[in-house]
């Protein structure tokens, strides 16, 4: 019996309108009633993810910033990792040949140089989380958990080559979404963060199940006792984890249907038709 369930948020637990469906909320509460540690594992900032969990009435654990921060179910920070100052300075000061916008995440919030389009803010309508205008080159080199570039995928692929050439193995690069490329501290991901959290709870990764849809979920899905890939997941993720079950789309609350079946018959194999 698994004792912890970790969920990516966007594209997994949340529907395309960035809401939690009623069936999903019901099954999350069933997990809590069964004594499972419910964990949101997201690229979102704590100030964005925590209000969503609170609105749902859940007192769960949080992995935020794609593993750069870990919080217990009382909101206490258990673990924090930032980009090394020299790496952050190189990313913030370099003039990248790209049209992608740069977004810097610090404990105090989300910093970006230009106002973000309204459609990009729709993802944060539940929490009210908003950007703060700041010139990246004037931000401190320390205290930056991650830097994100948002733009067209082809643009980001070109930028990825530039970043790799400049940073080498001093940082990890990850596509958290098709249009979002992130610069993260080396070895910092949802998988390593979940391992730290499970150890804090006296569990092993074999005691955990996890759900995800993007490349920032790869390490977590591969390391847990039972990983589950969304039907709407990035093709690259599916190809890298062919051994894991693939369920339905987030718009159909596929996580809820999967878990409802598992709670009824934990020893049975799930099929999307059930």
Automatic annotation (TrEMBL):
It catalyses: 4-amino-2-methyl-5-(diphosphooxymethyl)pyrimidine + H2O = 4-amino-2-methyl-5-(phosphooxymethyl)pyrimidine + phosphate + H(+). GO terms for molecular function: hydrolase activity. Keywords: Hydrolase, Magnesium, Metal-binding. InterPro entries: Cof (IPR000150), HAD-like_sf (IPR036412), HAD-SF_hydro_IIB (IPR006379), HAD_sf (IPR023214), HMP-PP_phosphatase (IPR023938). The active site is at residue 8. Its EC number is 3.6.1.-. Pfam families: Hydrolase_3 (PF08282). This is HMP-PP phosphatase. CDD domains: HAD_Pase (cd07516). Catalyzes the hydrolysis of 4-amino-2-methyl-5-hydroxymethylpyrimidine pyrophosphate (HMP-PP) to 4-amino-2-methyl-5-hydroxymethylpyrimidine phosphate (HMP-P). Its cofactor is Mg(2+). Coiled coil: none annotated. Mg(2+) binds at residues 8, 10, 213. Belongs to the HAD-like hydrolase superfamily. Cof family.
């Amino acid at each position: 019996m698994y004792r912890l369930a970790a969920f990516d948020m966007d594209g997994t637990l949340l529907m395309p309108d960035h809401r939690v469906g009623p069936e999903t909320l019901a099954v999350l509460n069933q997990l809590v009633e069964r004594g499972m540690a419910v964990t949101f594992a997201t690229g979102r900032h704590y100030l964005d993810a925590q209000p969503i969990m609170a609105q749902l009435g859940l007192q769960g654990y949080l992995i935020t910033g794609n593993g750069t921060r870990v919080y217990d179910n009382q909101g206490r920070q258990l673990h924090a990792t930032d980009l090394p100052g020299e790496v952050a300075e190189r990313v913030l000061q370099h003039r990248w040949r790209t049209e992608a916008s740069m977004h810097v995440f610090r404990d105090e919030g989300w910093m970006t140089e230009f106002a973000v389009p309204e459609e990009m803010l729709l993802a944060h309508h539940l929490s009210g989380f908003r950007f703060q205008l700041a010139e990246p080159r004037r931000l401190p080199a320390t205290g930056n958990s991650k830097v994100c570039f948002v733009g067209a995928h082809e643009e980001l692929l070109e930028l990825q080559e530039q970043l790799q050439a400049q940073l080498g193995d001093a940082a990890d690069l990850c596509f958290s979404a098709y249009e979002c490329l992130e610069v993260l501290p080396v070895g910092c991901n949802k998988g390593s963060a979940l391992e730290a959290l499970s150890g804090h709870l006296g569990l092993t990764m074999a005691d955990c199940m996890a759900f995800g849809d993007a490349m920032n979920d790869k390490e977590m899905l591969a390391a847990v006792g039972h990983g589950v890939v969304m039907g709407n997941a990035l093709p690259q993720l599916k190809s890298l984890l062919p051994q894991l079950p693939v369920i339905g789309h987030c718009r159909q609350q596929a996580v809820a249907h999967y878990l409802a079946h598992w709670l009824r018959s934990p020893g049975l194999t799930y099929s999307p038709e059930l």
